[in-house]
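seq:
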Amino acid sequence: MIEETIQTKLHLQLSPVHLDVINESFKHNVAPGSESHFKVIVVSEQFKGLRLLARHRMINQALADELAHHIHALAIHTYTPEEWSEQQKAPLSPMCLGGKK
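struct:
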């Protein structure tokens, strides 16, 4: 449910040409089926001319309610279409090192 909400909000706010919303909760010490840790890869024309911080603020603003109430961690990777065409992938997320029971 949270994953779909993230997809919907980012599509509405940023009209991305490419969007990946990846639930990475399984990499952490959470209950099976949790939706608490996500990675987003967003490619949008709206990022042209913006620095990384401004791009991240756009994502954070679009997902403000989810970040305040549902999401524990969000890895954000933003690209213009030109930047994305040069690399076609985002960095891998590290495995969680803490939180063992």
